[in-house]
Amino acid sequence: MLWTSIRTIARTFPSWDRRAKLNTSFFEEFLVLAEKENFSLAARELEISQGTLSRHIAQMEKEYGAPLFQRTTQKVSITPYGEALLPYAREVVKGERQFRQTVSHLRLKASSHISVGTVDFPSFYGITTLLANFKKENPAVVLDVRVGSTDMLLKSLDTGLVDIAFVRNITDLSQKYVAYPFREDLIHAVVPADHPLAQQQSVHLSDFENDAFYFRFNQNSLMNQFYTRLFACEGFMPKRSANHGNWEDSIINGGNDVSLAAAGLSNTLAGNLHVKVLDLEPPVHCDIFAARSKNFEPSTICQQFFDFIQDDHS
User: Fold this and answer.
1) Cis previous bond, 283, omega within 30
2) Torsion-angle region of residue 125: left (phi > 0), alpha (psi -120 to 50) or beta?
3) 193 near 273, Cβ under 8 Å?
């Protein structure tokens, strides 16, 4: 893709000497200048001198035989030639970045390095113990562990930033990932200690139809979409809490919002005097799965770890 884009540029600017060489970083500098319309601001963002940026742009214009920018004392504006170059420059920059990511990934694959992503509370779900046991059996391996939301972890799998991730099975994993169940996880209702249902052991989600819910997740997140589908099945959409601060703080200060929490978080709230953790009937699952991207061939050590996870689960 990178070389194809450069050849397309050559066809766009016929006077370009094909033997001439341009550093691919020039294209990124060109894009930044096109956005900032100011040499000083662009040079500052690129962390190079204004003179260096000016020379590089002039070199591009000389090679292409066309002015890319019109300079005035007030600002810099892109010319029609520059506009024509924009999409190809973006492809060059994008292609080089992707290539660098691939090189980095291939280097890591050749090593004994494994980048592992996990949802919150990995110790509660036995992930920490699993990693420790694998490290004990493979002392030369380097484990890089990242904690994040399922959204973040899936994106990290897509880009190769993590090799294997422990994520919640709240979206269809089968299309893009090789995934296996690792640990069962259940959603619980968490209510203020003085809530009318606080003395019950278990509740039905519909019991909270008239309550306001505090959600910890961004409205565009996979977890929020999961909850939306859950409430839709119950035939109602919850009222969202007006509280935008910390839910625990609001409860302590007399708030009456209800929340939903997976077992890891629910476990930490079990001894809290201000709230009561209730089971949901029927149970609502958001199980933990171990997943890897289908787009990347796993290294030997990564495949070994993936097999280790399956053996542990079985």
Assistant:
1) no
2) alpha
3) yes
For 100-156, write each residue's pLDDT tens digit: 877 776 666 566 889 999 999 999 999 999 999 999 999 989 999 999 999 999 999
> Which residues touch 32 (CB under 8 Å, ≥6 apart)?
42, 45, 46
Q: Is residue 106 part of a domain?
A: no
CB 125 within 8 A of CB 131: no
Q: Are 163 and 303 in contact (CB under 8 A)?
A: no
Question: What pLDDT is stored for residue 103 in this prediction?
Answer: 77
At 211-266, the pLDDT tens digits run 988 887 788 899 989 999 999 999 998 887 755 556 665 555 556 789 899 999 89
What is the C-alpha to C-alpha distance for residues 67 and 51, in angstroms, rounded to an integer? Answer: 18
Instruction: Identify whether 10 is part of a domain.
Output: yes
Q: Do 299 and 163 contact (CB within 8 A), yes or no?
A: yes
User: Are 6 and 97 members of one domain?
Assistant: yes
Q: Which domain does 80 fall in, by range?
A: 2-101
Query: Which residues neighbour 111 within 8 Å (Cβ) at sequence distance 6 or greater?
Result: 142, 299
How many domains would you assign to the chain?
A: 3
Q: Please tell me which of 44-48, 192-196, 201-205, 273-277 the model is most confident about, judged by mean pLDDT.
A: 201-205
| Antiparallel, parallel or unpaired: β 69-71 and 202-203 | unpaired
Residue 19 has pLDDT above 90, yes or no: no
